[in-house]
Amino acid sequence: MKRRKITQLKAASPFLLTDEQIKKFITDGFLILQTDFSEEFHEALNTQLRRYM
Hints:
Oligomer: single chain
Radius of gyration: 15 Å
Number of strands: 0
Number of helices: 2
Helix content: 40-55%
Order of helices and strands: HH
């Protein structure tokens, strides 16, 4: 079995979700957050996720 390197992301400072965000997550099952990650980061993440689908 091949081991994969797990990359850990660290936020500059932790933040809490608002009550409205928590309600939306509970209701919809997901939450869309705006990030400042690069396009390359998102492409690499999508590539990795597709391997498991």
